[in-house]
Amino acid sequence: KDIDLTDKDLEKAAAKIQSTYRNFTARKKQVEPSSDPPKQEEPTVNAKEDAPIKKVENNEEENLDDIDLKDPDVEKAALKIQSTFRGYKSRKEIKPDEKPVENGEKGDDEE
């Protein structure tokens, strides 16, 4: 049942799932209508970096067709990533409720 986290196939599957999710969120942001008027962007130093990044994303989308989603290893990798995220999310939701009580609000028996 233990999953070898150093397995190259697992790393590839995780990267593929993550890139798919990033592409999904990017497309979702493009589709949503913005209530703000479009802003005129000024050229920045980072403008040169945008082109190679887009090229890599296009290659990742092309590689998505090569993944067999029924492959048991891919399913295991997806389950591991999902369970890790769910655990992170639940810990994040619980954390604000467990803040320590401030000094001025302690009960009489804790002095």
TrEMBL record:
The protein, known as: Uncharacterized protein
GO biological process: binding of sperm to zona pellucida
Cross-referenced Gene3D superfamilies: 1.20.5.190
GO cellular component annotations of the record: membrane
Segments for region (Disordered): 24-70, 85-111
Pfam families with a match to the protein in the record: IQ
Superkingdom assignment: Eukaryota
Similarity-based family: Belongs to the PCP4 family.
Segments traversing the membrane: none
Biased composition (Basic and acidic residues): 38-58, 90-111
